[in-house]
Amino acid sequence: MKQLFGYIVILCSIPILLLIGNAAWKEMAKAEQYEQLIKRSIELPEVTSTSPITLYDANSKIFSEEYTEWSQPLALDEIPEIAKQLFIYSEDESFYQHIGFDVSAIARALIANKSEQSIQQGGSTITQQLVRMRYLTTDKTYERKLMELFYAYEIEKSFSKDEIFEMYLNEMYFSNQVYGIGAAATFYFNRPLSKLSIAEIAFISAIPNNPSLYDPVVHFENTKSRQERLIDKLTEHRVITADEANTFKNKPIQLNIKQKAQQYPSYSTFVLQELKWLIAEQTGYREKIDNTSDKLEKEFLQLELQKKTEAILRQGVHVYTALQPDKQRQDEAAINQILPKTDLQASATIIDNETREVISIFGGKNYRKHDLHRAFQSPRQPGSAFKPISVFAPYFEETSATPYSIVNGGPYCVGNFCPDNYGRIWYNNITVETAFKNSINTSALRLFNSIGVDTAFRYINRFNFESIIEKDRTFAAALGGLTYGVTSLEMADAYSSFIDGYYLPVHSIRKVTDLTGETIFSWSHKREEIWSASTTKTMRSLLNETVATGTGRGLYSSSGYIGAKTGTTNEFKDYWVAGLTNDYTAAVWIGYDQPRSMEAIERAKIHFSIFNAITE
């Protein structure tokens, strides 16, 4: 009976074994691919100090000095022994014995994670931490963890333990854009590492474990508490005595932060992001990444781009921008004053019509450096503000229709998509102008359907809508129904085509020079005709009529012309105004970071007040 049972088990196991075997072969092939790509990307970095990225306004005056990273690399023998011990004993006691990863630590982590049903513990060695800092994201997935082990093993084969430890100590993040223990010493105490006391070395050594939680500028007490725990580690390993530990813990810590020019953080944050876009564009990486469907290859191209960008910026560059400091200051003050003292947020982008440059940008209420920048990082549903781009301008471009052509405003469905009009008000035959200025959804959908999704997106895709994806090619897009939405930067960019029918992607950067003054990067100034003269004239007239007698009543300008379109999304979660005057093109969004209804403040028209303030 036992023998028969054994045969049954074996027979039942054959399909499972075949399945496992097939998966194993696939994983082996994938592993070989990983190994080749990893070997391609692993190299010993050139260790250099960094120079600042200096930002200049439209008047060529410095308004910000930025460090993509503040770094002052040190050789391992220049780093005090006590600093090395602090990291070895707190992070990876078996560093000099393992092969890049600690099998027993991983086993413990797997057991803990299984009980938690998520990845909480990583069992990470110093080598693995170096891998994450240099090559991978910190996402807690098993796929990323596997990649981390591949990298750690390859690094251990390529470099000595001392080389790995030196790289680790020079590349750790110490918060506030500071990288490496040498830079941390000069940034936080304005003295070289060799001149710090043991208490001060332990203090900065506390930061990398959690740079946000232990940022001494913001959470000094948290950093001090961890410093004391690190000093206890030295006592446990008999590096210092208990009496010495108490002395070091009680020694006052006085920060002496390195000062640098830091004005207009909302604008400078955007410039730094645009600088990365510019480098990606002009080094050819943007095209390579866009044209690669293989996820693994895309990841490595992004890694190469990151390393290329860091190498360029580390040398120091001068970035000349279109910032108009007075306007930026006035716009920020006006918007912050208009917004109520609640968690209501806003973003705004202001373009100079003559130059097509971003001269002012608002990333959020009381914006601070490295906050979420809502003007370019937070796409939201645009609602009817999208209709000029998605429906009406393409419709006039593709047909012989005029603003006085007739369209029905009654109930209308395309498949299962049956939008309502605002207030569930239905119309009979109306002019296209009436449909536009009163934002009649069913009329807009009829016009969109008449030209077709493909034709509409042929125009939409000519603009820089980064968050619009393939699955957005639906009829809902006619009314601004998108998967992720758009940003105020993208809306202002697209609306700038209504200045004269031509499109030049808007930018804040005029040129980038090296430290000798030679121009190394600048955007192309080639303009493309998007709308014919007839379509442009019609759209400007419709936008103007919307302000005069439609949903834009309450907007105004002393420039001689104003045209705009409003947008309100489902359940009043987003309010938009996008439009232009003779001088400026602008887009304004207001809403909550965690979307919720704003119906209670609809009549206040806060977004109108903001638009009026920034376009004057």
TrEMBL record:
A Gene Ontology biological process in which this protein takes part is:
peptidoglycan biosynthetic process
- Do the record's keywords include Cell inner membrane? no
Compartments, record wording: Cell membrane
Q: Provide this UniProt record's keywords sorted from A to Z.
A: Carboxypeptidase, Cell membrane, Cell shape, Cell wall biogenesis/degradation, Glycosyltransferase, Hydrolase, Membrane, Multifunctional enzyme, Peptidoglycan synthesis, Protease, Transferase
Where does it mainly reside? membrane
Tagged with keyword Membrane: yes
InterPro entries, A to Z: Beta-lactam/transpept-like, Glyco_trans_51, Glycosyltr_51/Transpeptidase, Lysozyme-like_dom_sf, PBP_transglycosylase, PCN-bd_Tpept
* Domain (Penicillin-binding protein transpeptidase): residue spans on this chain: 347-592
Classify the source by domain of life: Bacteria
GO CC term, one of those recorded: outer membrane-bounded periplasmic space
Example of a GO MF term: serine-type D-Ala-D-Ala carboxypeptidase activity
Family the entry assigns = In the C-terminal section; belongs to the transpeptidase family.
Protein name per Swiss-Prot or TrEMBL: Membrane carboxypeptidase
